[in-house]
Design a protein that fits this description.
It is a single chain. By secondary structure, this protein is an all-alpha fold. Helix content is about 70%, strand content about 0%. Helix 2 (about 20-30) crosses helix 3.
């Protein structure tokens, strides 16, 4: 499975958190750059489709 650099950044936030919501992921990513909520949720959807 190939993942993009941005998908990896989203996964890294998830891996560092015990439990997290999409809002937590958005807030965390926004602290480190110019991330938009819709972009993060789109990336989450792609990752779900790619599966484990």
């Amino acid at each position: 499975m190939d993942i993009t650099k941005t998908e990896l950044q989203v996964l890294q936030v998830i891996w560092k958190s015990k439990e997290c919501s999409s809002n937590h992921i958005v807030e965390t990513l926004q602290k480190s750059g110019d991330w938009h909520e819709k972009t993060v949720k789109t990336l989450l959807g792609r990752l779900v489709k790619k599966g484990p």
